[in-house]
Design brief:
The protein is mainly α and 91 residues long. The chain contains 5 helices and no strands. It has a single domain, classed as Serine Threonine Protein Phosphatase 5, Tetratricopeptide repeat, CATH 1.25.40.
């Protein structure tokens, strides 16, 4: 996808969230789009909102770990990845 398509996807997720602001999947997917647009701080905020709504949302933990790593916040990234792994693979 090119940046124009990502911008269109972002608009679609924002519209979806205006209709259902409690949608964990929409928040997570908005984060993915923002990450692809290299808007990492905004992506992190979207992942955090998804996780606030549903702390068991494993994909959001994985995506959060990715953006934290890119921001150089390695300790936090490892904690987020550990949380993802615990949800996926168990204790």
């Amino acid at each position: 996808m090119d940046s124009e398509q990502y911008e269109e996807a972002l608009t679609a997720f924002e519209e979806a969230l205006s209709l259902n602001p409690q949608s964990t999947e929409a928040w997570n997917n908005k984060g993915v789009v923002l990450w692809n647009l290299r808007r990492n701080e905004e992506a992190l905020a979207a992942y955090n909102k998804a996780l606030e709504l549903n702390p068991g949302e494993a994909p959001a933990w994985y995506n959060k770990s990715t953006v934290l790593r890119e921001l150089g916040r390695y300790h936090e990234a490892k904690k987020a990845l550990d949380r993802h792994d615990k949800l996926i693979f168990g204790e």
